[in-house]
């Protein structure tokens, strides 16, 4: 059984996110019926839903969106082979 997030959940994750640790900003965008991460100067990476707020994609590994006390997406963490717990904080929601 595959997890299928709602369009509202997907849209709530769209925006720009910055990691101070690795000094980079990623854009998360809607791509078809899912999400994609757009690192600067590289091709977009399609994210496959795994569970609520958890996605997986080539070269980024596992992306887990974080929510604040109100339930709004505030950032995400990336976990892959050589990089664990890299935090990206939301800098600009879509729109």
Describe what this molecule looks like in 3D.
The structure is a single chain. With 95 residues, this protein is mainly beta. The protein has one domain: Lipocalin, CATH 2.40.128.50. It has one helix and eight strands; from the N terminus they run H-E-E-E-E-E-E-E-E. The termini are far apart. The mean pLDDT is 91.
Low-confidence spans: pLDDT under 50, at least 5 residues? none
Order of helices and strands: HEEEEEEEE
Which architecture would the CATH scheme give at its second level?
Answer: Beta Barrel
- The domain count comes to 1
Count up the helices.
1
Secondary-structure blueprint:
Elements: H1 7-13, E1 15-19, E2 24-31, E3 34-38, E4 45-51, E5 54-57, E6 61-67, E7 73-80, E8 83-93
Antiparallel strand pairs: 1-2, 1-8, 2-3, 3-4, 4-5, 5-6, 6-7, 7-8
In brief:
With 95 residues, this protein is mainly beta.
Main attributes?
mainly beta; 95 residues; single chain; eight-stranded antiparallel barrel; Lipocalin
